[in-house]
């Protein structure tokens, strides 16, 4: 039985090779993208691991302290251990590095790092890209990114700050290559001699001790010996464990991007499933006589169903193999594309692991079989006498009433579940976003189920005006699209999903861009924010006290209209809550927060204003009392709630209450707004001139933050559009495949129209108009669903974190519609021309 079944399936594949090849190409694209995502992840991790060899090369054992640092005495004990070939202590300390304009270089709130020069070059955590390492005091080597970013030159001067903030000029003698070591987070990294390390950072102890085993010594045995020698209070890690940890730290952001890619890959596979289902359903309808003849000569229902499923299995396997080959290009392209958006994944040969092969083949075959399951079962139900029936009459009869009622029930159920999930997720803000999106996807699935019932009416609505304007050809196209609602619905559903996802993310990202710009403008209504950095060993660029008299000098400059001194500190009873205050005469204009309830006029020594978010977390309202530990008047009465403020403090207190709780400390932040007519560039020049003698004062410009955020959102929008374009491409292929199948299915009808006088050009136009109608229905339905879902999700986020209304990017969505329609018409052009060339007989 198996051998005839296989021969039957192979014969079916050969008989419909061209049409199945088009379907197989959709599977190739989907599987290639899905497997390419996995290839990207494996390649990126391998690239990180290989590149990190420079940070942990030749390291067989690593010693780190549980707290504090490793002393030189411990290093000497390690060197005395039997089997140790070399051991080196690594000093890692905080160091301030100034740019060529005398401003402190910081990255993500962190200042720079100072590293020691290795005593054993084989254990160096970096390479020397140019020049050499420091040999005498007064010399410095910097990482390549800092040198290029700040415009330093080998042999030129570099200024660093010691712990007291005193500048010291050194000579740049080398450039370091750190690879992709994420430990330093993009901060400036300098290599100094031991003398300069102690002089500038105040430490000569080690953050790490790395050990290389002697020839013939087992690293695991050496690790045990070293652990015994150093005693408690130290962590002793193997070299392989050290490399694994560095690789995880460096590549952890790959996992987040990988999850996004996998999500879009699954979307592409889902869209391709619609194409496969539609293809096999149409082939089953076309092969009614063929299948009925098989039943007449003795084939059972199970054999016919098995033959169709076997065809789908072979198709899925062949297409999956093609997708696996395509995944190499996709994975490598993703890495190169990721570099274009400011990533630093090293180039590496594509890596294909066996799980990737299993996923590619498994998903391709599984999706193909599942998509063909319903058409296969229906093919098995073809009665032997179906060869005597009129196929066109059977198609025109429509679906039985019972089946239509069942479809309505299922669609309504899915839609109801989707609405409930969306309503449940909206009040939760960002944590509820998965519920909103999941509910929306279930709702879209409900729309797909109901599509065959809605397709005739949608075709009539979309084609009504063109039919009246352009005449008989368009009316025939409308009639053809309405005649087989299942085919029209299945074809348009694939495009609907792709456009819906593009519309949804378009609304979300456009809203995010506007909200982010609004929040920056409202939270930082001033042009510049000034804070300072402590260099006494504190790792982060925290807002320490600003230089005395700086605010007065700023107020004396006519370029600045507003200069406000902000004090901020943790609440005594709850250090997680930041309390802030400004002198009363400065709490005006752009410094005054936006009040949503109550009034700041009632702010006094026994009163407080809370941010809206903190009030919601604590369940507080105007009139309630909150204990903060700020003196005898505590707890304080809440007199106002605010939404946007020029600081990130959650509690605004009266100036007298702040002084009573914290004393008259120096301001830790100065907010500066420009005078009318002064440009941002001119204001920045004035600030640089006034801050020339204060290199530790950092200047942050609102315009720079807004531009950086806008650039990031534009990059995300481009990435999402490209990823979703994969599913739209598959849907367009499905439209072309469907029309090619319908051309073959309706060859008698096309010949009859030609015999009645319809020219080749008009027949081509007829089929192109039909494809355009199907594409328009899918694109418009997807647009409506996507905008609705994106609006709901964006509205939930706005209600939780901001205010206003979602943004619908009309131009972008219109372009999406035009491109989808144009692509569908182009995909349908070859089969339409083929139909026009068919002979009348």
Automatic annotation (TrEMBL):
InterPro entries: ABC3_permease_C (IPR003838), MacB_PCD (IPR025857), Macrolide_Exporter_MacB (IPR050250). Its main location: membrane. It holds the Pfam family MacB_PCD. It is found in: Cell membrane. The lineage of its organism: Bacteria, Bacillati, Actinomycetota, Actinomycetes, Micromonosporales. The keyword Nucleus does not apply. Belongs to the ABC-4 integral membrane protein family. Residues 21-227, 488-689 form the MacB-like periplasmic core domain. Keywords: Cell membrane, Membrane, Transmembrane, Transmembrane helix. Residues 264-383, 723-839 form the ABC3 transporter permease C-terminal domain. This is FtsX-like permease family protein. The keyword Cell membrane applies. It is a multi-pass membrane protein. The chain crosses the membrane at residues 20-40, 257-283, 304-334, 354-374, 408-426, 432-455, 492-512, 716-744, 765-798, 810-829. Signal peptide: none annotated.
């Amino acid at each position: 039985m198996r051998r005839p079944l296989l021969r039957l399936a192979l014969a079916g594949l050969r008989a419909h090779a061209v049409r199945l090849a088009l379907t197989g190409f959709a599977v190739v694209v989907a599987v290639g993208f899905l497997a390419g995502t996995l290839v990207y992840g494996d390649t990126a991790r391998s690239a990180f691991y290989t590149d990190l060899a420079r940070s942990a090369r030749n390291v067989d054992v690593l010693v780190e302290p549980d707290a504090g640092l490793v002393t030189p005495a411990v290093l000497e004990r390690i060197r005395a251990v039997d089997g140790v070939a070399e051991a080196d202590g690594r000093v890692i300390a905080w160091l301030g590095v100034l740019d060529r304009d005398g401003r402190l270089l910081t990255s993500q709130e962190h200042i720079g790092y100072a590293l020691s020069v290795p005593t054993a070059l084989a254990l160096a955590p970096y390479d020397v890209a140019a020049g050499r390492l420091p040999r005498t005091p007064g010399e410095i080597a910097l990482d390549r990114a800092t040198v290029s970013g700040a415009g330093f030159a080998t042999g030129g001067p570099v200024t660093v700050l010691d712990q007291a903030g005193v500048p010291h000029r050194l000579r740049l003698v080398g450039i370091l290559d750190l690879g992709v070591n994420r430990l330093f987070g993009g901060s400036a990294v300098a290599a100094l001699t031991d003398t300069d390390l102690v002089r500038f950072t105040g430490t000569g102890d080690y953050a790490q001790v790395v050990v290389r085993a002697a020839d013939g010594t087992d690293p695991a045995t050496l690790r045990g010996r070293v652990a015994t020698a150093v005693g408690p209070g130290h962590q002793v890690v193997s070299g392989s464990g050290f490399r694994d940890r560095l690789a995880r730290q460096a590549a952890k952001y790959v996992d987040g991007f990988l999850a996004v890619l996998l999500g879009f890959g699954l979307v592409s596979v889902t869209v391709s499933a619609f194409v496969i289902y539609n293809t096999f359903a149409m082939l089953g309808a076309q092969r009614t006589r063929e299948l009925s003849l098989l039943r007449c000569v003795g084939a059972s229902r199970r054999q016919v169903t098995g033959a169709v499923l076997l065809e789908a299995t072979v198709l899925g396997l062949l297409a999956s193999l093609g997708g696996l080959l395509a995944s190499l290009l996709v994975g490598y392209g993703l890495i190169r594309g990721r570099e274009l958006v400011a990533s630093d994944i090293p180039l590496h040969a594509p890596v294909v692991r066996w799980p990737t092969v299993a996923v590619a083949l498994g998903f391709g075959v599984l999706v193909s079989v599942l998509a063909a399951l319903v058409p296969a079962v229906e093919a098995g139900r073809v009665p032997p006498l179906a060869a005597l029936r009129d196929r066109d009459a059977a198609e025109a009869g429509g679906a039985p009433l019972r089946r239509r009622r069942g479809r309505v029930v299922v669609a309504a159920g899915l839609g109801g579940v989707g609405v409930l999930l969306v309503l449940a997720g909206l009040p939760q803000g960002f944590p509820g976003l998965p519920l909103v999106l999941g509910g929306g996807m279930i709702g879209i699935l409900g729309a797909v189920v109901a599509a065959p019932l809605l397709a005739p009416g949608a075709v009539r609505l979309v084609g009504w005006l063109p039919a009246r304007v352009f005449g008989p050809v368009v009316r025939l196209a409308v009639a053809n699209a309405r005649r087989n609602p299942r085919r029209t619905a299945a074809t348009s559903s694939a495009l609907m999903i792709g456009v819906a996802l593009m519309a949804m993310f378009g609304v979300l990202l456009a809203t995010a861009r506007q909200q982010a710009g609004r929040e920056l403008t409202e939270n930082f209504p001033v042009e510049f924010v000034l804070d300072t950095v402590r260099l006494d060993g504190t790792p982060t660029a925290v807002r320490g006290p600003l230089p005395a008299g700086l605010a007065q000098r700023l107020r004396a400059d006519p370029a600045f209209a507003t200069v406000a001194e902000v004090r901020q500190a943790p609440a005594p009873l709850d250090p997680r809550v930041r309390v802030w205050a400004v002198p009363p005469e400065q709490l005006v204009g752009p410094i005054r927060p936006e009040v949503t309830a109550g009034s700041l006029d009632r702010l006094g020594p026994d009163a407080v204003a809370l941010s809206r978010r903190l009030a919601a977390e604590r369940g507080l309202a105007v009139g309630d009392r909150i204990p903060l530990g700020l003196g005898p008047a505590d707890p304080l009465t809440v007199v106002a709630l605010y939404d946007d403020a020029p600081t990130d403090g959650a509690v605004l207190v009266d100036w007298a209450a702040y002084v009573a709780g914290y004393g008259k400390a120096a301001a830790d932040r100065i907010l500066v707004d420009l005078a009318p007519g002064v440009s941002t560039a001119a204001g920045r020049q004035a600030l640089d001139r006034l801050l020339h003698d204060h290199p530790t004062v950092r200047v942050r410009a609102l315009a720079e933050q807004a531009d950086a955020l806008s650039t990031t959102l534009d990059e995300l929008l481009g990435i999402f559009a490209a990823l979703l374009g994969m599913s739209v491409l598959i849907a367009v292929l499905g439209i072309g495949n469907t029309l090619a199948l319908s051309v073959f299915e309706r060859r008698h009808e096309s010949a009859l129209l030609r015999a009645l006088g319809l020219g080749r050009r008009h027949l081509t136009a007829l089929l192109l108009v039909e494809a355009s109608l199907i594409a328009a229905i899918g694109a418009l339905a997807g647009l409506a669903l996507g905008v609705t879902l994106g609006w709901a999700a964006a509205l939930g986020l706005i209600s939780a974190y901001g205010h206003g209304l979602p943004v619908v990017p009309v131009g972008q969505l219109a372009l999406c519609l035009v491109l989808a329609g144009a692509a569908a018409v182009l995909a349908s052009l070859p089969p339409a021309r083929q139909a026009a060339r068919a002979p009348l007989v």
